[in-house]
């Protein structure tokens, strides 16, 4: 069984998972809280997000992956691309209760800054009260690789086209992971990549 939920400003922000199977949550430019309480074994929770900030966009996101029982998985990947004066503030918490042995929880936030004025503050946290678990978290924020830009320039791409190629490659990781677990992503990809063409 797979359940897909798109998180928007109008949707609920707290979910309790009571059924085994795959539960997929997708965020695009969502500001707010997202809390996933995992209260059953054999549940697989996937949280994917893509943020595209332009002009003075300002996004704030708080996520909680709360493992109340064990023998389950949560996996979060959020990627952001920020232009102009946009800002992204992120706090992510993985919380493992004492009885949630054999939980696997992963959290990764990666961001690209495409303007000297763009700003990201990303803070991952772990709160682990069980000893038989596997948890990782990480956050990176940087700029486009100049060697890759130079290589594409030598291949005849304009600076704008080279930037577009690298940004699409950066974001595509999210779609690749979604496809691996059986999600259809074509319409989402088309909508989001169209946003990269905006200036």
From TrEMBL:
SUF system FeS cluster assembly SufBD core domain location: 33-170
Domain of life assignment: Bacteria
GO annotation (BP), single: iron-sulfur cluster assembly
InterPro entries noted in UniProt: Fe-S_cluster_assembly_SufBD (IPR055346), SUF_FeS_clus_asmbl_SufBD_core (IPR000825), SUF_FeS_clus_asmbl_SufBD_sf (IPR037284)
Coiled coil: none
Name of this protein: SUF system FeS cluster assembly SufBD core domain-containing protein
Organism from which the protein derives: Candidatus Roizmanbacteria bacterium RIFCSPHIGHO2_02_FULL_43_11
């Amino acid at each position: 069984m797979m359940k897909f939920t798109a998180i928007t400003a109008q949707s609920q922000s707290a979910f309790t998972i009571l059924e085994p199977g795959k539960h997929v949550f997708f965020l695009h430019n969502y500001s707010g809280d997202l809390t996933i309480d995992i209260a059953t074994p054999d549940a697989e929770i996937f949280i994917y997000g893509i943020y595209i900030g332009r002009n003075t966009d300002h996004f704030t996101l708080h996520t909680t992956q709360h493992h109340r029982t064990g023998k389950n998985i949560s996996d979060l990947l959020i990627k952001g691309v920020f232009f102009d004066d946009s800002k992204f503030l992120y706090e992510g918490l993985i919380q493992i209760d004492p009885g949630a042995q054999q939980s696997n929880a992963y959290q990764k936030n990666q961001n690209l800054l495409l303007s000297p004025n763009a700003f990201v503050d990303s803070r991952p946290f772990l709160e682990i009260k069980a000893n038989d678990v596997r948890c990782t978290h990480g956050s990176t924020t940087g700029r486009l690789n100049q060697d890759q830009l130079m290589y594409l320039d030598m291949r005849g791409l304009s600076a704008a086209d080279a930037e577009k190629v690298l940004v699409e490659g950066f974001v595509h990781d999210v779609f690749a992971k979604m496809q691996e677990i059986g999600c259809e992503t074509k319409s989402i990809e088309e909508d989001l990549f169209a946003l990269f063409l905006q200036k």
